[in-house]
Amino acid sequence: MTMTAAHRLVRTLAPIRRGLEPVPTVEGDEVVKRQAGTQDGVAASSARRRRVANPRGTMPERLNYLFQNIRNIEDKPYSAAQVARWINDNGGEISSVYILKILNGERTDPSQRYLKELGRFFGVSPAFFWEDEPADLDLDELRQRILLRDDLVQSMMLRAARLSPRSQQALSDIIESLLKAEGKSE
Q: What is the distance in angstroms between the CA of the first residue and the CA of the last residue of the chain?
């Protein structure tokens, strides 16, 4: 949605009229973080921003554990916007702001519908969020499953499967060389 100059001006001046610092207009995840981490443009307390990650803790702590420990292809944690985008693109419905509110502990009892969608993204049972003793998670396996659902990766794997064993080995050697060149070899 494109903001007109008038909308931008109103957005900039409204907090000033209330005696607050203006909230700058930024794109993508920064907007979401700002919306979930502020109230009327004033930064939330640092205690709320401090997130505890514990696979056996409260529901927000368990979700934080998944966010902090399951990494994307660049070995960075997924953002709430990335998770919401995937869920919404794959038949679910959730906002990144709502996810951030769960992570911050502002929403401690989300519906099972949201937990199901979050579990689907991370590859865990929704029961992980409420069981007294959830099963241990294999974080490497969960990460691999998430990475393998990428359309390009699936397409490459399907094409590679049609190659002869000798060509598959050659392809594997090429991939290993590329990983070494990028400093990502195991």
A: 43
Assigned token pair, 144: 């691999």
Q: Cα–Cα distance between 66 and 70 in angstroms, integer?
A: 6
Whether 69 has a pLDDT exceeding 90, the answer reads yes
Contact of 62 with 70, CB cutoff 8 Å: no
Instruction: Give the Cα separation of 112 and 135 in Å (integer).
Output: 19
Burial of 47-82, coded b for 16+ CB within 10 Å and e otherwise, reads eeeeeebebeeebbbbbbbbbeebbeeeeeebbbbb
Q: What is the pTM of this model?
A: 0.66
Tens of pLDDT, residues 132-168: 888 899 999 999 999 898 888 999 999 999 999 999 9
Question: Which residues, 6 or more positions from 185, have their beta carbon under 8 angstroms from its beta carbon?
Answer: 176, 179
Q: Which residues contact 23 (CB under 8 A, 6 or more apart)?
A: 11, 15, 34, 38, 41
Alpha helices in the chain (DSSP H): 5-17, 29-37, 46-49, 59-69, 80-89, 96-103, 112-122, 139-148, 151-161, 165-181
Cα angle 69, 141, 86; round to 5: 65
**C-alpha pair distances (Å), 180 with each of 73, 177, 183, 184:** 16, 5, 5, 6
